[in-house]
Amino acid sequence: MKAILCNGPESIVIGDLPEPKPAPHEVIVEPLYGSICGSDIAICQFHGKKYPGIDPSPENPVVLGHEWSGQLQGKLVSAGCTLGCHGQAIYPPCPSCAVGREDQCYNRKRIGFETRGAFSQRIAFPASLVFEAPQGLDSRTASQTEPLSVAVNAVGHLGQVDGEKSVLVWGAGAIGLYALQYAKVLGSPQIFVTDIADYRLRMAEQLGATRVFSVNREDAVKMILEETNGLGVDAAFECTGYPPAFNQVLRASKRMATVVIVSIYGKELVIEQPFKDMIDRGLTIKNARLGPANAIRLAIKTLASGTVKPVVTHEFPIERAEEAFRVAANPEQFESVKVAIKIR
Questions:
Q1: What is the pTM of this model?
Q2: How far is it, in rounded angstroms, from Cα 76 to Cα 82?
């Protein structure tokens, strides 16, 4: 069985794996499409990056892929990457899973990280976490369920965005562009988006941002404050993974705002904003990393309805997986946002 493996720094190969053996609570799914996440780039150590706790080698290769769609008994399905207590058949469930927050599971595992990923011809996956796609949804678009679910969780559940709250999305990568679109779905009247790349800002405008700002050319915080009569935004989402950006987001947020970190910081996060000021202004800081099952359901629904558009910019067959990763790892050079791989 073919699979995309990382067996060392910047080494992507097509390897052969034994067929998966499903546990009693699992089914065999045939992946159709997958897309490359920034976490995959870090696992493969492109540009010297590292993903904590995962160190691929020829002796211990990593089967990549956690953003995917597949086929189960002739039907198009999609899923997330998080295996909480229910996905691992652990009973009774932990306190997080008991309230539907398997993204914060005490026993959490993830496909493409701790377990075999979806960039392979067949995978064993928990039957309870596989969701059938609505009629009319294509397999490439369905592969965006997992990254969109992260934005759904961040914007809808944690950010509690509604028709009255203004929104700031700091960073217009794939997750940022999905956060922008879901904020629009929820009716936000003002959605500001920042980035360093003009091509991503153009996409943000096309997808419905109220205003976009290039942080390389303008004082985005100052301009956002001007746009909000000096108050700042109600809900802000830091989507860059660049630690200094968090401090900018705090400055652009109003009193009693909710600030959601939707990033993985490779370096220690230093909060320059005085902690006392954050308390005095009543800011609420939250973290969104993954999407629980309900966010997966909502993601599939919005993709099927067309209210959220996929941000796939490039597609490659599985035989060109190495090239796909090069394009995904060098977004400014290739103007890539989300790179998809057709697995079958």
A1: 0.94
A2: 19
Q: How far is CA 102 from CA 47, 51, 95, 229, 267, in A?
A: 32, 21, 9, 39, 26
The answer to whether 108 and 297 have CB atoms below 8 angstroms apart is no
> Counting beta carbons within 10 angstroms of the beta carbon of residue 229, is it exposed (0 to 12), middle (13 to 18) or buried (19 or more)?
exposed
pLDDT-based confidence at residue 269 (cuts at 50, 70, 90)? confident
Specify whether the CB–CB gap between 28 and 118 falls below 8 A. Answer: no
Q: What residues pair up with 35 in beta bridges, in sequence order? A: 67, 340
β-pair partners for 284: 258
Determine which of 28-32, 134-138, 186-190 has the lowest per-residue pLDDT on average: 134-138
Q: pLDDT category, 263, cuts 50, 70, 90?
A: confident
114: which 2 tokens? 């701790």
Which amino acid is present at 47?
H
Look at residues 236, 275, 273 and name the one whose alpha carbon lies nearest to residue 254.
236
Q: Which residues pair with 236 in a beta bridge?
A: 168, 259
Q: What is the DSSP string of 114-180?
A: TB--SSBS-EEEEGGG-EEPPTT--HHHHTTHHHHHHHHIIIIIIS---TT--EEEE--SHHHHHHH
Q: Which residues pair with 5 in a beta bridge?
A: 13, 63
